[in-house]
Amino acid sequence: MKDVLTDRATVTLSPDHRRSIWIAVALTLLALAVRVYRLDFFALRGDESFTVQFSSLPSDELFEGIRTVEPNPPLYYYALRGWMAAAGQGEYATRFFSVFFGVLAVPLIFALGRAMGGRSIGLVAAGIMTVNPFQIFHSQDVRNYTLWPALLIAAWWCLWQAIQRGRARDWAGYALLTLLGLYTHYYHAFVVLADNLFAGSLIVLRGWQPAGYAGARRRLLVTWALLQAAVGIGFLAWLAIGSTRAIEEIWSGASATLFEIMGRTAAAFSVGESVPGNLALLLTVPAAILVGVGAIAFSRRSPGGARMLLIGLAVPLMCVFVVSLARPLYRARYLNVTAPAFYLLAA
Q1: Where would I find the beta strands (DSSP E) of 243-309?
Q2: Which of the chain's ends, N or C, has fewer CB atoms near its CB within 10 Å?
Q3: Which region among 33-47, 220-234, 264-278, 311-325 has the lowest average model confidence (pLDDT)?
């Protein structure tokens, strides 16, 4: 018994495994340090002040405000409201709510990268997430742009585990986290579309399940249909009583071209938004090359993983472009949910 336990411990806690865990812990602590540094140095900006005041409303007024004023789903506002009840409404306290999810994304992307492509990919992606200027900025901003990617990474981890192992708890975790994503940002519907295209590719294309493919395909089809029905019903419940503000909102201005959206998004993900435009696009070239080469390398190591990341990166971007044609409003933060795929491919 002792030998069996010893052997098992050696397998699960090999030197490389322990080393990668400690590096991930160090990156997580570094992510916390760089995000809390001067966290309350600047006063809350306009959107932050609105978010704090809006989330401080009594529950019934907040609900009515989300229905009629704010074109975002309710999860972040109610979660922030609960946080402020315990921590207060100062700059440090309210921004730390975003810090928490910005830091949480580091070990989450490590776990996802390790599961999909190995420890080195997970560690490099976690390192990029740790020091990336765009992610640091949003971790110090009282908005929903760190909660959203954290939910996405966790949902993808559950999805990947479910596909590999078929466990009910992983499928349930994916469905719940996806529903929470929809309750965080309406553009998460684009992620759901991407996930459906990825699942559809597994159902249609061979290769992901070499033995017993027909039975596996039927099981996946039934399971996926049930999950999507549950997620759809859960989200429609909010739309039925909640907000259509995001759909009804009309914006003025010129629509960005697809090339502009791709360039500005890649630049933001690479060097942040404070670098002047031309310089940012120049500095983006190496990152774009890394992503392209990474997609090829990833497809050789994990074809399913590469397909999942590429679909998860491309589909929301295309959807945002299409939406921007009717509603000329684009910001890189509206695509921050695709940043994890960008970083994993670069890694």
Answers
A1: none
A2: N
A3: 264-278
How many helices, marked H, and strands, marked E, lie in the chain?
Answer: 17, 0
Asked if residue 345 lies in contact with residue 295, where contact means CB atoms within 8 angstroms, the answer is yes
Instruction: Tell me which H or E stretch contains 291.
Output: helix 277-301
Exposure string for 233-248, b = 16+ CB within 10 A, e = fewer: ebbeebeeeebeeeee
Nearest Cα neighbor of 331 from 256, 277, 243 is 256
pTM score of the predicted model: 0.91
**Residue carrying structure tokens 């959206």:** 261
pLDDT in tens, 277-299: 778 778 788 888 999 999 999 98
What residues contact 266, with CB distance under 8 A and at least 6 apart? 284, 287, 288, 291, 342
Q: Give the residue extent of every domain in the chain.
A: 22-346
User: Which residues touch 57 (CB under 8 Å, ≥6 apart)?
Assistant: 65
Concatenated DSSP letters of 31-99? HHHHHHTTTTSSPP-HHHHHHHHHHTS-HHHHHHHHHHT-SS-SHHHHHHHHHHHHH-SSHHHHHHHHH
Q: Which of 284, 335, 343, 259 is nearest to 309 (CA)?
A: 343
Contact call for residues 185 and 101 (beta carbons, < 8 A)? no
* Cα–Cα distance, 59 to 236 (Å, whole number): 21
How many Cβ atoms from other residues are within 10 Å of residue 232's Cβ? 13
